[in-house]
Amino acid sequence: MAPITPSQFAEIPCRFKDTYQWLSTTTQLVLLLFLSLLLSCNSSMDPEPPEEEVIDPGNEIVDLVGAELNYRNHCGGCHGQNLSSFVEREWTYGNSFEEVVQSITNGYTNNGMPAYGATFSEQEIQELTDYILTEIDGKTQAMLEEENPDLSGLISSDDLTFRLETLTDKIPGIPWGIAQLPNGEILVTERGGRLFLVRNKGHLVEVTNLPDIVSEGQGGLLDVTIHPDFENNSFVYLSYSRANPSDSSELTTAVARGVLNGNSLSQIEIVFTALPYVNSGTHFGSRLVFDTEGYLYVSVGDRGRRDTYPQALDNAIGKIHRIHDDGRIPTDNPFYTTPGAVNSIFTYGTRNPQGMSIHPETGAVWEGEHGPRGGDEINLLEAGDNNGWPIISYGINYDGTTFTDLTELDGMEQPVHYWTPSIAPCGMTFVSGDFYGNWKNDLFVGSLKFEYLHRLKMNGNEVIGHETLLDGIGRVRDAQMGRDGYLYLVVEGPGRLMRLVPEQ
Question: Which residues of 81-116 are buried (b: 16+ CB within 10 A; e: fewer)?
Fold first, then answer.
């Protein structure tokens, strides 16, 4: 279940004729179109919780009964198992019994809230509503924070003993992305549209003069990174949701850069805009990374229009893009000379990529994305790759039905790793250097749903093991290797910036 946020219901027809108008008439691509029509014409919308956290088959909680069981299995991943997103919040559509019943029953598809009228009976919805309103009565956020696990002592993993050092626990709202400056200070984005600078001793300073950001649904101020030559040019890059200048109801993912002077940005310019603008509040992506050659990669989600955009090259939606630092398009991009294609596209067939990292030894770009109900993926990106969404997937619809029977197809890449059930991955980084011992070159991924840090033990490009760390720490929004060699995390509930310090 997703947060109850503003939207209008929208029924979007299957439009594969438009989606595939760019394809050639070769036998292979005609077959691909035919399979798409057969397998995916249930809806061009991909309704879901705003952070991809519906509890999936195989991970359902079974030792509870009734409304509590339904909440934990269908709602808790997004709203918090402790109902945290309902506590001390403004309910846009009302918090009366009747209004909550209406929201659960009909949903708000355009902002990612599925309708549960076909999933639960009328009585089950009423019992679920009563459970939510009863459980949050009298609770405060401070009371919920007191229930957080004590992670102040030494923590032992399979290969390392470490401790957590909290730099600040005062980040308001929903922190989303982090980037460390050469002087050790850390930029932190807040999805509501604010950028903070965490200075020495955790002092929080708000950075002013940001671009025009629209915080709606999953949108807002998203990722942040700095230019590889920041020490000389002071460029900061922000990804965010931007309104269509001609129609404020339509949004898209954009990237702006500005010069950081103290606690203010100047010389703001937009270097990337993912067209077209879409009347949707879901699946913006978005992560930013510079590779070792100075190219900037931008991840963009499918905006909840899975059957319209990800497989077509004539739009920027559901893609990973590669640009120069000033927004120019590299002439060696894979589709630079393809007629009708958006020439910034590096790979396509992507759902909602909220993780991206550069391998510390190979320099390759890796990407992590939310699946639907199951099928979260980690992908190794190579120029021109089709990562398959939504033609192939290891996930299903949120109501339990299928949208494709295919998990692989010629011409489409397999993920390096996938999760079924979903963990709702958000933010990821490779550990580099020798500071963390046997963690070197392993991939660390934040989990929104289960509130832990997931370690993928790597041998080259192969996952050879798993470990969950910091269980119950909060919804992990980003994980980044700092320029100082420490592994940093930012979590919500409360908003905290932390680093993992090895016990020497």
Answer: bbbbbbbeeeeeeebeeeebbbbbbebbbbbbbbbb
